[in-house]
Amino acid sequence: MSSCSISTTTTAEDGGRTAITAVHPDIIQTLILTKLDGPTLISAGFASSQLQNLCSDENLWRKICNSSWPSTSDPIIQKAVSTFPSGHRSFFSDSFPSINEQKSGTGNHSNNPFPSPELISAVDIHFEDELLYSKVLTTETKSGWFMSSPFRIELLGHKEIVPTPVKFDGDDENCKSNLQEKMKLSWILIDPAKNRAVNISSLNPVSVRRHWLTEELKIRYSTVMGSGDGEGLVQCGIVVTCEGSYSAGRDAVVAIRRGMLLFRQGDVLGSLVEFDKAIQLDPRQKAYLWQRGLSLYYLDRYEEGAEQFRLDVAQNPNDTEESIWCFLCEAQLYGVDEARKRYLEVGRDPRPVMREAYNMFKDGGDPEKLVAAFSSGQPNEYFYASLYAGLYYESQNEPDAAKVHLIAACQSPYGSRSDDYMAALAKVHCKCRNWNLN
């Protein structure tokens, strides 16, 4: 294989075999190289200059990337990869599971410690080679939220759920063992400004544990890499949550799902019936049923709603939204001033829009400023700003202003397209108030 000539023929020393260089390049490229995976294709390119040229074909590498990571077929990824030095070949070299630290020859003396305006995430989850989930997400890097530590990316919308066809049968240990061995996750982080990418997932889980109450399985992936400045290490952790379904609490979980579906459909009373049924089946669920509190609010059962949200915050002291909804219930019961005295203090929400909304309800503020601050932000930020601006006006007994912002939330791109439970809530709110979205 050391020869580069395509005219090489069989020899006695070869035992009558035909050298690879004697095969027509089209046959090599279409019938041989297309059968290889990425690492093998790279190795084949070292065999001869002819093969190196054939193995560098952009279309060949695009197909390998799309096959390895289905998310890379997204137009956002295609546009970013098109600027890489060698296109998809460079992208594969950066992203193939092992992490190779790239040392920079010069330090970064810019006033902005992260000059790239955005990062792109390409995420793929497989189980036994079957694709379960694939998504591309863009994250801005200019705000203080990004620069805070630890940095956090939520792949799904708040309280969003993605169904999968995977069935986990057998006892719990076998279930966890199957996930440990067969569920693979790739999370490629792309810097389009520097034309670099890195796979921050460990590919295989480092742990699989079941939550004692919710029975959800928490599948954790983790990697550790250099910080880039040679002065420390960075840990990247990814958690996939799978709904539990093996114990006596299964029927309660089914009732909760039915209740959530009925609420999304606008049947608030029917949803409450299902949530209460879940509590009868498994009393442990009550302390976590924030969905029940929302249904109680729209049924004007504010005292029970406030009780539900206080139970939720007691179990999850960092939940900003439960604190706000408790305030909304108690504002209807006692008035705004008294509700503010009873306001539930919670931890720091990772979402900037919810931190601002939390402070607005806690201390009083201007809902118009909240909406203006996030009007040019991410679609979900504008939605949440509009939603909570409308709810704030409702707590102040200003229905006309509330109507403007709640309808805006419903008609926003995120509110009209997202599967987020709160997007459904905005529509339910308008329905309960007899507001026409059209």
TrEMBL record:
Top-rank lineage group of the source organism: Eukaryota
Ranges of the TPR repeats in the UniProt entry: 252-285
Keyword set, alphabetical order: TPR repeat
Keyword Transmembrane set for record: no
PROSITE patterns associated with the record: TPR (PS50005)
InterPro entries: F-box-like_dom_sf, TPR-like_helical_dom_sf, TPR_rpt
Name used for this protein in its record: F-box protein
Source organism of this protein record: Datura stramonium
